[in-house]
Amino acid sequence: MALGLLSLSASAGKVVCDSLRSEVLGAQVKFNVYLPDGFGKTQRKYPVIYLLHGLYGTYQDWASRGSLKAVADEFIASGELVPCVIIMPNAGHPDARNEWNGYFNMPGWNYEDFFFNELVPVAEARYDCVGDKGHRAVMGLSMGGGGSTVYAQRHPDMFSSCYAMSAWLDNETDAVKKPHAKGDKLQIVADSVAEHSAIKFVENADEATLASLRTVKWFFDCGDDDFLLELSEDIHNKMKAAKVKSELRVRDGVHNWEYWHTALRLALPFASRNFDK
Fold first, then answer.
1. Helices (H), 127-206
2. ∠268-270-273 over CA atoms, to 5°?
3. Burial annotation 95-133 (CB, 10 A radius, 16+ → b, else e)
4. What is the pTM of this model?
5. Three-state secondary structure along 3-62?
6. Burial letters 8-26, b for 16+ CB under 10 A, else e
7. How far is residue 219's CA from residue 207's CA, in Å, rounded to a whole number?
8. Whole-angstrom Cα distance, residue 96 to residue 50?
9. For each of the chain's 277 residues, which pLDDT tens digit applies?
10. CB under 8 Å to 230, separation ≥6 — which residues?
């Protein structure tokens, strides 16, 4: 046992907090980064995973609540995850009614422009990432699961895989379609989810778009008692009908961190398997 603990400790990575000045958002934007053991000691370039948080969350959630470092360390040590950089960007605030949340462009908050035009090039240069489709994955929970899906749909040339956990993919179901006060930022983000519906994207896709979606590996993971389950089932079925292969797993669970702890243990190896070798 002591030798096992020593071996795991010797291959431990670290999580660092960083930030960049966004001209798009007019703000300093923080993000956490997982760096594998040995980072910076060689000229090695690394695959990268973008790991997105949910509504009411922040860039700190996956490290502080999701045990990201421990899981990544364990899976790199076991060989289930190739050594990689994991970037956890900030796209939210616990006070969702008065502060911005969301991964899409919306009035006053052009987050998708920030993500692709500022965060990706800056972070990947700063942290020695390979920087191509074959070595880049995206995943997330809830709002971040929907964001991950839409990002991979709209930018399939940039991601090898997408793993969506308990994903908020549309705003048309009774479970999530709730009116909020006029001007409430929670209403703005809810409207943005409807406007960027991942489900309608598949419904409306032409053959060229579907062909591009087939170049991405897709995985939808949702609990059997999760209020968003029908959305994951719906997009999986529509993808299947469109001959876009996706995985769907419905496991025992609800919309909470207990579920996402286990989802992460499936998501990281999935991304790793689908990186270019």
1. 143-154, 185-195, 198-204
2. 110
3. ebeeebbbbbbbeebbbbebbeebbbeebbeebbbbbeb
4. 0.94
5. HHHHHHHHCCCEEEEEEEEECCCCEEEEEEEEECCCCCCCCCCECEEEEECCCCCCCCHH
6. eeeeebebeeeebebebbe
7. 21
8. 22
9. 344 444 444 569 999 999 999 999 999 999 999 999 999 999 999 999 999 999 999 999 999 999 999 999 999 999 999 999 999 999 999 999 999 999 999 988 999 999 999 999 999 999 999 999 999 999 999 999 999 999 999 999 999 999 999 999 998 765 555 656 667 899 899 999 999 999 999 999 999 999 999 999 999 999 999 999 999 999 999 999 999 999 999 999 999 999 999 999 999 999 999 999 8
10. 173, 175
Tokens of 252: 């025992």
